[in-house]
Each structure stands twice: as C-alpha cells, then as structure tokens.
Amino acid sequence: MNLSLLIPILAPSLASDIGVPVLIIGAMGLAFGLLLAFASKVFAVTRDPRVEEIISVLPGANCGGCGKAGCAGYAEAIVLQGAPVNLCTPGGPKVAQEIAKIMGTEAEAVVKKIAVIHCSTGGKDNTKWKYDYRGIETCLSAVNIAGGPNSCSWGCVGFNDCLNACKFDAISVDESGMRIIDIEKCTGCGACVKACPRKLIDLISIQQNVFIKCSSKDKGPLARQVCGTNQPCIGCGICVKKCPQQAITMANNLASIDYSKCIDCGVCAAVCPTNAILDTLKGTRKKSEIDAELCDGCHICVPVCAVGAIKGEENQKHNIDQDKCIGCGVCITVCPKNAIKTKE
Fold first, then answer.
1. What secondary structure letter does DSSP report for 259?
2. Which CATH number belongs to the domain containing residue 340 in this structure?
3. Res 197 pLDDT > 70
4. What is the tens place of the pLDDT at every residue in 239-272?
5. Helical residues (DSSP H) of the chain, grouped into ranges
6. Domain contains 98
7. Ramachandran angles phi, psi of 77, nearest 5°
8. Is the residue at 5 inside a domain?
9. What average pLDDT does the segment 79-102 reach?
10. What domain of life does the native source organism fall in (predicted)?
11. Residue 118 and residue 190 in one domain
12. Buried b vs exposed e over 134-144: b needs ≥16 C-beta within 10 Å?
C-alpha cells in the first residue's frame, strides 16, 4: 500500500488528537498564571524602603559582628525590630550616623573594639608538643584528637582558624609562628572569636591597654611545666591584691579583668611575677612627682603605691623614686593636700 496516500486522511485526526491536550494545557497555564499574578498583588509584602537604604550604607562585609545573618539581616532588624544603629563594627561611627539619619534617630557613641588573644603560645619555638599531629590542619580538628597536640590544653594550637576566619586581613603570623593582630585593620567583627575552638580570643575596647596574656587554668607548677618560659598565669593572686580598683578577680587559677572597673593604670602588669599581663602603655605614662612645699608627710600615699616608689617617714617630706614609678597615678588620687602631680 502507498503510505503517502494515507497522510492526507490521517493528518486531521492527528492534529485533533494532539491539539486538544495542547489547548487544555495552555488554558490551564494561562489560568494559573493569572491566578499567581492576582495572588502576588493581593498578598504582596511591601518592603520598607529604609531597608534598602541602610543596606546601601553598610560596608557589605557580612561578618556577623552585629549578631545578624549578614548586612541585609541587620538592616531588617533595625527597621522592623528596632535594633541599635551602632552595631556595625566594620562601619564604625560614620555608618552608625548615616543609619541614624535614615531612621530619624540619634546614634549612640560607638567605641571600637579589637580582638585580643589571651595566650602567649602557639608559635613554633614557644610551644611544647605532646605528639606530632598530622591530621587535618585546623585548630578544631586538632583539639578533638587526644585534647590537642600541645602540652598546654588551654593554649593556642597554631593552625590558624582565626586567621582564616578574618575577612579583613587583620591577623598575621610572625617569624616564630605567633598570631599577631593589627589593631588598625581589626574591625572587632568577632569572626576570629567564634573560630577559635579554645575560646582564646576576646573583643575589648580599643581604649583599654592592659590584657591577660594567658588562658591556662592549670595550677602554678603545672602551668610553668607545660608553658615553660611563655609567661603563664600561675594564679598567685598578687594582681588581685594590688589592683586599686578591685577590677581583677581570680577564678580557677586564672586572673580576669573587669573592664568596667579598670582604669588602665598598669599596676597589675607591673606586679605580675610571670609577666602574664601585657601593658601596651608600659614606659609611656607620665610619672608622678611630689611638691615638697605642699607635702606634710601624712604618709597616705605610701601604702597605696603598688611598686614601692614613694619613700619618706611619717610627718616628713616624701619623694618618689622615678626609676620605680610606673605613672599609674593612684597616689595623685589619694593625696589630701594635692601635693602629688603628674611630672611634666
């Protein structure tokens, strides 16, 4: 049979069989499209335009330092939940002011915070190792294997989880393998704080200059044994006794500073027998001197001097040993005759 003769006969039938379903599907698609378009109009959620404005002024780091899931999340929290406008640490005061302007409010003062590592180990030459770790080179992985490869179970492991988490290139490694924080680059976002599995990093106001360099909770002899010459806190409590503001407490053999009380005097660092407290202003503070004409020898200043720099018998003129004075200024605050002043 010649099949070509059947094509004209079958063509209308095939067109009818195929065309009807196509028309039905097309009609359904059109109906659903119209329904969705209608629903998008009826149920549309209008986004406050201030959200986009705030996103445009944020730095776009998406660091999470504000406590939200990125800059967009923070912008929505400001507009919809009334979140503070000064939580963006990378943006600082300038961004806070711009957001406040958008929201029609006043921005509270923003005090920049920087990351501080409470450990003086972690380098190639200043860490004692228990074994040669050859696993995945992350701090988190290393600390999960027999408590970590370093002898100090509280100290830095040294695989740079903090450095890798920093989006601002603020953490580097020096020649001995120690992690160094560049306070000019640090935005205080807190990414390194979250990344450290041993919680050795903290955010502290840039206005503070005295830090505990250790996180060990081992007792003195053990701390010295596993840390060696790395200046561990041995829990002796001398800093607690000498602090003029009672800003230091001791818990589990480790000193900690309450920065709401700390006056940055540096006394704790001066009296620490192991140099476990870092004072970045050491040697730069202006020292005190006594005006002999005003001093009546009341002797009140002598016992408050933590470094024994003030000499003199009661009811006689006193003087300050400039070699011992650290410039803490505590004696100035207690002198009833205003006889002690900062040396020019």
1. T
2. 3.30.70.20
3. yes
4. 999 999 999 999 999 999 999 999 999 999 999 9
5. 7-42, 49-57, 70-81, 92-103, 139-143, 161-165, 191-195, 220-227, 238-242, 267-271, 301-304, 330-334
6. yes
7. -65, -35
8. no
9. 88
10. Bacteria
11. yes
12. eeeebbebbbe
Residues 53, 126 within the same domain: no
89 and 121 together in one domain:
no
Q: Is the pLDDT of residue 230 over 80?
A: no
Identify the band that residue 330 occupies on the pLDDT scale cut at 50, 70 and 90: very high
Whether residues 118 and 191 share a domain: the answer is: yes
Same domain, 72 and 125: no
Q: What is the CATH number of the domain that holds 63?
A: 1.10.15.40
Q: Are residues 68 and 143 in the same domain?
A: no
Q: How many domains does the chain have?
A: 3
Terminal C-alpha separation, the chain: 121
Let me know: does 144 contact 161? Beta carbons within 8 Å: no
Q: Look over the chain and give the mean of its residue pLDDT values, rounded to a whole number.
A: 87
Residue 244 lies in a domain: no
Question: 161: domain range?
Answer: 113-207
Task: Reply yes or no on whether the pLDDT at 307 is more than 80.
Answer: yes
In this structure, is residue 249 part of a structural domain?
A: no
Phi then psi for residue 42, to 5 deg, are -70, -45
**Cross-strand bridge partners of residue 310:** 320
Report how far Cα 242 is from the mean position of its chain's Cα atoms: 28
- pLDDT band for 16, please (50, 70, 90 cuts): low
- Determine the average pLDDT of the residues in 12-19: 55
Query: Using an 8 Å Cβ cutoff, are 68 and 39 in contact?
Result: no
User: pLDDT tens-digit profile of 142-167?
Assistant: 999 988 998 999 999 989 999 999 98
Interval 225-246 mean pLDDT: 89
In this structure, the answer to whether residues 94 and 117 fall within a common structural domain is: no
pLDDT value at 6 more than 50: no
Taking only Cα atoms into account, the Rg of the chain, rounded to an integer number of angstroms, comes to: 33
Give me 17's structure tokens.
Answer: 């069989």
Same domain membership, residue 127 and residue 160: yes
- With beta carbons less than 8 A apart as the criterion, state whether 123 and 155 touch: no
pTM, two decimal places? 0.76
Q: What is the DSSP string of 205-248?
A: ETT--EEE-----S-HHHHHHHHTTS-------HHHHH-TT--E
